[in-house]
Amino acid sequence: MTFKRLPSLTKTVLEQLKPLKLHRKDSQTQVSHFKHVSSYLIKDELLSSVLEASGLKNAYDNEDMTILEMSPGSGANSIALYNYFQPKRHVLLEPRKAFFSHISSLTKNTDGRMVLHERDGYSWATYSELYQKHPEYFYQQTSKEVRLGPNRRFLFTGHLPAGTPGILLGTQFVMHLIQRDWLGILGRVRLLLWMSPELAYILLACNGYKSRSSLSVLRELMCQIRVLAAPVEFMDTLKKGYLHSSAVTYPVMKTISTTDEAFAPSANPLVLIDISCTSYQSDVPLDILEYVIQSLLVQKSQPLKETVSRLCPGAENLVPLLKKRGVDIQESSVTASAKSLENIARIYHKWPFRPKVMTSTLLEKP
Amino acid sequence: MRSTTRFRNASSRFQRFARLNSARPFVVTILRQQSPFRRLYASTSTTKYTVEQSVERNAPPQWLSFKGFNGNEEKVPVIQACLNAGDISRALQILQKTIGHSTTDEAVHLVHVFLKHSVSCVPVEEVISYYEQLLKTRRFRADAISYAILCQAAMVQEKASNSSFPILRKLVRNWRRMNHSLSEILMVGSLVFSKKEASVLAELFRLPLHVYSGEERDKMQLADLYDSISKNFANAQPDFVSQDQLLSVKTRNIGLDMLKNTLSAIQANSKDQLEIDRAALDIGEEADPYNAARQRLMEKKALESSIAEWRHSYNEILRRGENPPHSRSLNALLYVWYEKLEALIQEEFRQIEDSENNKASPYKSRTRAEYAQYLKLLSPSKLAAITVLEMLTFVTNKRYCTGVRSTFALMSVGRAFEKEYFSEQLQKIEAEGNLPKSVDSKKLFSSPRLFNSFVKKIRDNEDNGIVQSSLYQPWSPNILVKVASVTVSLLINSAKIRDSALDPETKSTVFQDSSAFQHGYRYLAGRKVGVIVAHPVLYDILASELSGAHLPPYRLPMLVKPRPWLMWNSGGYYYSSESVLRFKESHEQLLYLKAASDSGQLKDLLEGLTALGNVGWKVNRKVYDMLVKIWNTGESFLSIPSANTTLDIQEMPEKSIDPSARAEWLRMLKERSLDFASQHSQRCEFNYTLEIAKAFLHETFYFPHNVDFRGRAYPIPSHLHHVNSDFCRSLLIFAEGKPLGEEGFQWLKVQLANLFGKNKSTIQERIDFVDNHLQDIFNSVDKPLDGEQFWTKADDPFQALAVCFEIADAIRSGDPSSFISHVPVQQDGTCNGLQHYAALGGDPEGAREVNLEPSNRPNDVYAAVAARVISILKKEAAAGDPMAELLKDRVTRTVIKQPVMTNVYGVTYVGARAQIEKQLKLQEDIPKDLLRDASAFLAKRVFQSLRALFKRAHEIQDWLADCAALIAHSVPEEALKQKELDKMTAVVWTTPLNLPVVQPYRKFPSKQITTNLQSVYLEDPDSNAPVDPRKQTTAVPPNFIHSLDATHMFMTCLKCKKRNITFVSVHDSYWTHAASVAELNGLLREAFVELHSRDILGDLKREFEDRYKNHYVHNHYPVDSPAGQYLLQQGATAKRSVVKGWAPLTFPEVPERGTFDIRSVLHSQYFFS
Question: What CATH number is given to the structural domain containing B870?
Answer without folding.
Answer: 1.10.150.20
